[in-house]
Write a structure and sequence with these properties.
Elements lengths: L2 E6 L2 E5 L4 E5 L14 E4 L2 E5 L4 E3 L9 E10 L3 E7 L4 E7 L2 E10 L1
Antiparallel strand pairs: 1-2, 1-5, 3-10, 4-7, 5-6, 7-10, 8-9
Length: 109
């Protein structure tokens, strides 16, 4: 069983070939939006296990990369934030929708 640990968007993900991961919106693409099917490369690989041996980086493994295909970009469901203070007539209600990208992992190198 081959897997890797990658870092993107300030978070770490355990990925295997064929997985579809739900990550924060990929940065660096603001001026030119990637289309569905675009190839994405993750260079910040923390750990690679190929079934026989495990390689751990300090902090990253040089030369290792994980390649994937962009499946979808969108926005998550709305999260409601409410603030309330008793007896002072203070109420505040706002919402937030986080942008996300879904990437299908193709290969681990």
């Amino acid at each position: 069983m081959e897997f890797a640990v990658i870092q993107t968007g300030g978070k770490q993900y355990i990925v295997k070939p064929g997985d579809v991961i739900h990550i924060e919106k990929l940065s660096g693409y603001d001026d030119k939006r990637p289309e569905k099917g675009a190839k994405i490369t993750f260079n910040e690989v923390l750990l690679v296990d190929d079934g026989d041996s495990t390689t751990v980086g300090a902090p990253f493994i040089s030369g290792a990369k994980v390649e994937g295909t962009l499946v979808e970009e969108g926005r998550d469901r709305k999260v409601i934030i409410q603030k309330y203070k008793n007896k002072v007539r203070y109420k505040k209600r706002i919402g937030h929708r986080q942008h996300y990208s879904e990437v299908k992992i193709d290969t681990i190198k």
